[in-house]
Amino acid sequence: LKEENASLRSKINKLQIFSETQADKMRKLERKLEENKIKEEKEAQDLEAMVQHVEQNLQLMTKRAVKAENSATKLKQENALLQVQLKNYRTENEALRSGQSASLAAVKQNADVALQNLLTVITNSRSSIKQLVSGAESLQLVADLLKSIDSISEVSQDGQ
């Protein structure tokens, strides 16, 4: 009976040691789990901040694109007006050549001024159109980035 009692006490001691070891492992795992939760919350907050920043940039780029479109439209209208004006000056120039050679220099100067204005408007129009295209490409890049973020979010949620 004493041997059996000693054997049982030995088993109880071993089980207590094992139990304490398991409890220590459990506490360590709980701490690690809590650390991981905190880390995931911080990452989620960082991701949310990044998404908000991207959305702000998208809104800003959209405003710029609208402004560029409006500018391009105005420049096209001005370009058309100057082309009509240039045509009128050329017609006037031709009429003056056939009738009055004295005012030919003034007409030529007017036509040159109109031509210079027209070339300036054309140059500005091209620049604005290039800016508009660049803005559209930037918007496409941001849209692709947002799609990627959505995909990452969906994968993260599925993976949990």
Task: Tell me what you see in this structure.
The chain is built from two helices and no strands. The longest helix is centred in the N-terminal third of the chain and has 98 residues. This is Endosome-associated-trafficking regulator 1. Keywords: Coiled coil. One of its GO terms (cellular component) is centrosome. Belongs to the ENTR1 family.
Specify the number of helices: 2
What would you report as the Rg, rounded to the nearest angstrom? 39 Å
Mean pLDDT across all residues, rounded?
A: 86
Contiguous uncertain segments of 5+ residues: none
Could you tell me the number of beta strands? 0
Helix content: over 70%
Describe the global form: rod-shaped
The helix-strand sequence is HH
How widely separated are the two ends?
A: 55 Å
Structural class: mainly alpha
- Characterize the quaternary organization of these chains: single chain
What is the makeup of the main sheet? none
Q: Proportion of β residues?
A: under 5%
Coiled coil: 19-92
Keywords: Coiled coil
Organism: Aptenodytes patagonicus
Family: Belongs to the ENTR1 family.
